[in-house]
């Protein structure tokens, strides 16, 4: 009987340690919450530029991209590959440009960007 009490007490003690996971560092809204919110997107025959929140040190290697083609239209999605560790300036926005060749896009190919647009004020 004593071992049952210890088993029950141990189970309750371990259950007390269980907790819910911490909230995410980004808001989980929209169909793809892991995608980087962008302030603007500019598509030209030479490339594609996205404006992302940054402290001045964001560069193309900091963003991962995924391109999918369907019916002659390319869909592009950008996500942050690594956290910003620079402490150069207060938060703001930086335009990061990608040549079409780097994304595997043809010059005349239509492009849709899946990333959500940021509606927040300047950071």
Automatic annotation (TrEMBL):
Entry keyword set: Signal
InterPro entries named in the record: TAT_signal (IPR006311)
Lineage, broadest ranks: Bacteria, Pseudomonadati, Pseudomonadota, Alphaproteobacteria, Caulobacterales
Protein name: Lipoprotein
Secretion signal, residue range per the UniProt entry: 1-25
């Amino acid at each position: 009987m004593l071992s049952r009490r210890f088993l029950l007490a141990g189970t309750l003690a371990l259950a007390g340690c269980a907790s819910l996971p911490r909230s995410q560092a980004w808001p989980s809204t929209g169909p793809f919450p892991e995608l980087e919110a962008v302030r603007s997107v500019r598509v030209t025959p030479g490339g594609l530029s996205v404006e992302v929140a940054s402290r001045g040190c964001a560069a193309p290697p900091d963003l991962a991209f995924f391109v999918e083609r369907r019916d002659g239209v390319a869909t592009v999605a950008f996500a942050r590959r690594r956290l910003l560790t620079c402490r150069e300036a207060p938060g703001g926005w930086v335009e990061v440009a990608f040549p079409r060749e780097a994304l595997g896009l043809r010059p005349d190919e239509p492009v849709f960007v899946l990333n959500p647009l940021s509606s927040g004020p300047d950071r």
